[in-house]
User: Which sequence fits this backbone?
């Protein structure tokens, strides 16, 4: 038994030391719910999933270790290959995802008439569920939908936005970009607030034109924000497009809008080969792990713990 | 001096044309959903794009009573409310411990919780589903509440920790000297002091839980949440657009309301993490 717990409390050490035994015990107790949830639903499933990916277990729980056979199978699975190609195409559009909101934020910051209105309205689609966005655009982007109707009014021929495999991925990306760019505008706006106005003003007095100030003064000072938006967007497009794919295109036509996260869902739904679905999950985890690690680093740097 | 300023203004005016079009597209969903929801099926077929001529609330009645959106709505409300409360409670407790108390492995635990951001639900879809089944949480609302709490927790814990770490330490020490137990310090000092951060988190987590579809599809398979219900209503070729629109209005209305009331809070919350310190 500990003798001196209650009566003689040791003076609390201020710098770097730990609190009393009671304080420590209490801290662990307070962290228990958070840790338990994160471990039970995320960390242990991740480890469990890795082992699962090395087996050919069926629904009844019978199966053998198959080593990396599921991974080899993924490498030769045309559907998985297509989902990777789609991911590469998606990631190739990343500069637009970063630069469009940046440009809009700078224009608002520089005093576009009605800037406050734009800021509020641009963010609106970002609060809507991807299911709602997907449901609306599934009607709007139909061959006989309102977008083609509007284009027809200005003399542009109807385009099969969702039904042709050459357009569907582009449409999906455009809708996702449209629904999230407002978030980027907000983040850039709050970054611009930290750029001292006198630097911009000084450049103006020195005779720098609008575009010179933009590219030589403002954009360089936004570097940390650009970094952050790029990281967050990359994670976002790798892991938060499920709802939109599910409602808007269902991964098709064919595999043209199937991304890895949607393929995992399809494989999981078949239920007969969880090992294979787990293997694709692991590949997705490795793909985004590095990028997500950067986000965690940025966030913990900001907390200054 | 005045010349460059004039040129600036011209550039800004020129930019406001495409910016206005973009803004119009952002509010178009509201027009689309409400306008179509008020048309009856025949009215929609006759005039799909025009303004509704003979508005009726028939679609809302159908969605609510016959398409079981009353149940879906109730499910969404219950699950969202439960998960948001759990998230606030758990993250505030954890944030207090991580920011204020001193104990071994503090940074490690903070790291583990934050690092679980790297494990989105897609990455653990199969084992997560098996866990839900093994714990007999499949098709239970409490299962969905716990799942939401687990998956939205890291950001909440991060925000509460950062918020509490910025409070002056003297607050806690003063309360401690007065003989308050830690639980009392949390209840009487940290919770009231944390209100601004808790409000932000309450709003953001409401958005996340209400809008989710993937976790809900997995955990609540027999009953549905609103978003799963809307997704199901969108059949491939025979979608009843007016009915779908009515369901969209039902599903979006609470969120739009939240957005209108708390726009500033939402904006500030989203921007946190990006630029701080």
Assistant:
């Amino acid at each position: 038994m500990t003798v001196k717990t209650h009566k003689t409390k040791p003076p609390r050490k201020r710098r770097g030391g730990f609190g009393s035994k009671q304080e420590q015990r209490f801290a662990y107790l307070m962290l228990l719910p958070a840790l338990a949830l994160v471990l039970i639903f995320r960390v242990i499933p991740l480890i469990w999933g890795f082992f699962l990916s090395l087996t050919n277990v069926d629904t009844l729980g019978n199966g053998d270790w198959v080593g990396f056979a599921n991974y080899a199978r993924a490498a030769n699975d045309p559907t998985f290959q297509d989902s990777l190609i789609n991911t590469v195409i998606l990631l190739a559009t990343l500069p637009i995802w970063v630069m469009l909101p940046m440009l809009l934020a700078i224009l608002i910051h520089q005093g576009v008439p009605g800037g406050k209105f734009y800021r509020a309205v641009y963010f609106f689609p970002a609060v809507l569920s991807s299911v709602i966005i997907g449901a609306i655009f599934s009607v709007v982007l139909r061959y006989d939908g309102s977008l083609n109707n509007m284009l027809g009014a200005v003399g542009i021929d109807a385009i099969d936005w969702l039904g042709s495999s050459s357009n569907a991925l582009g449409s999906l990306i455009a809708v996702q970009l449209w629904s999230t760019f407002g978030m980027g505008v907000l983040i850039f706006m709050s970054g611009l607030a930290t750029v001292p106005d006198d630097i911009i003003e000084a450049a103006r007095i020195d005779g720098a034109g609008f575009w010179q100030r933009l590219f030589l003064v403002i954009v360089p000072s936004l570097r940390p924000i650009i970094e952050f938006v790029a990281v967050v967007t990359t994670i976002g497009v790798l892991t938060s497009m499920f709802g939109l794919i599910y409602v808007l295109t269902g991964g098709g036509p064919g595999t043209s809008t199937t991304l890895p996260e949607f393929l995992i869902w399809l494989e999981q739904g078949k239920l007969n080969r969880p090992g294979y679905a787990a293997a694709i999950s692991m590949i997705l985890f490795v793909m985004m792990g590095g990028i997500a690690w950067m986000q965690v680093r940025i966030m913990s740097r900001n907390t200054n713990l | 001096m005045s010349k460059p300023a004039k040129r600036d203004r011209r550039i800004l005016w020129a930019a406001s044309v495409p910016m206005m079009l973009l803004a119009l597209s952002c509010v178009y969903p509201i027009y689309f959903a409400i306008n179509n929801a008020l048309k009856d099926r025949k009215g929609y077929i006759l005039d799909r794009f025009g303004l509704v001529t003979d508005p009726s609330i028939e679609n809302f009645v159908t969605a609510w009573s016959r398409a079981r959106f009353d149940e879906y709505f109730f499910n969404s409300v219950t699950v969202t409310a439960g998960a948001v409360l759990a998230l606030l409670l758990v993250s505030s407790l954890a944030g207090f411990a991580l920011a204020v108390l001193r104990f071994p492995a503090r940074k490690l635990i903070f790291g583990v919780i934050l690092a679980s951001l790297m494990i989105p639900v897609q990455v653990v879809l199969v084992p997560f589903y098996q866990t839900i089944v093994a714990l007999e949480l499949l098709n239970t609302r409490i299962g969905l509440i716990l799942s939401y709490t687990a998956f939205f927790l890291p950001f909440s814990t991060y925000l509460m920790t950062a918020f509490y770490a910025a409070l002056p330490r003297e607050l806690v020490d003063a309360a401690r000297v007065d003989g308050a137990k830690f639980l009392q310090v949390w209840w009487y000092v940290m919770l009231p002091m944390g209100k601004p951060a808790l409000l932000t988190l309450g709003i953001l987590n409401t958005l996340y839980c209400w809008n989710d579809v993937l976790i809900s599809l997995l955990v609540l398979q027999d009953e549905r949440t609103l978003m799963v219900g809307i997704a199901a209503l969108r059949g491939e070729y025979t979608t009843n657009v007016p009915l779908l629109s009515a369901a969209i209005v039902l599903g979006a209305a609470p969120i739009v309301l939240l957005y209108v009331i708390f726009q500033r809070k939402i904006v500030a919350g989203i921007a946190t993490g990006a630029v701080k310190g």
